[in-house]
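Note to self: the last two entries modelled the partners one at a time, which told us nothing about the interface. This time every component goes in together.
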Amino acid sequence: MASETTKTVASWQSGNPQGFARLDAEAFPVFEKGWVWLVGAGPGAPGLMSLLCYHAMQNCDVVVYDALVNPDILRWVRTGAELEYAGKRGGKPSPTQRDISLRLIELAQAGKRVLRLKGGDPFMFGRGGEESQMLAKAAVPFRIVPGITAGVGGLAYAGIPATHRDTNHSVIFLTGHDATGKMPVNVNWKAVALASPVIVMYMAVKNLGEIAAALLEGGRKGDDPVTIISNASLPQQQVMSSTLATCAAEVAKNEPPTPAIVVVGHASDWRDILDWYSPALKANPIG
Ligand code: SAH
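The predicted structure of the combined assembly is written out below.
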């Protein structure tokens, strides 16, 4: 029974397709012609994208999207808009970052409303910084729409709280490879090893053996848990548990699928009681 503190949702808010249109007009910025919106689509599960991302999909002329964007999300792009893929495609060389930025500038200068759609968050290891820098240089107006980054959302889907009052007060995010694909050398691994109870690493599976060795040398303990979350938030999500001492051998043996996020530290211990997604998937394979 309704009390004074509850109210019934108005008809336009539930089940009425006009609901979003009303929200568009009142709560969302206008997607102007000649603008580029750099939008994060989240780690994969369609439900994790933002309303502003949905709004952009409904109001753009062209979507330039990356390999990490779940194609299921693209079904919300408005009829008549164009889709341009900007990632690697079977064997063919992928366009360079410069090519992509120039293409965004070209489309915007042709008067299009350009949605640059990226996996996760555009400013988290997504080259959104470089792209917006080029747009700024070319005097193309742009907006950044943050998304849920794999290094936070992916952990949540594995039952690992990125921070916790009892065990982890700080988090480090880092990339496991540099522009050439090697382990980054300009990272102070000793400082990283000691600075934070939780280290979240993107693009780190390939160089994990070297990274683990650097962290151990820097003073991290061999029994520190290492969790690898593949395809986070998607029905095919897989989680591999190991330790700093064993992770290199485990990766060689089990070859965890990519994309994958690597988490070092005791935050992973919470999985024992907080892993909610595996049972949810068993109950409902859509996740
Ligand atoms: N901008 C993205 C990151 C791009 S870098 C973000 O904010 O999430 C690409 C790396 O992100 C991958 O190598 C992997 O480490 C991570 N990643 C992205 N999506 C992922 C997913 N669904 N599951 C696991 N890792 C993911």
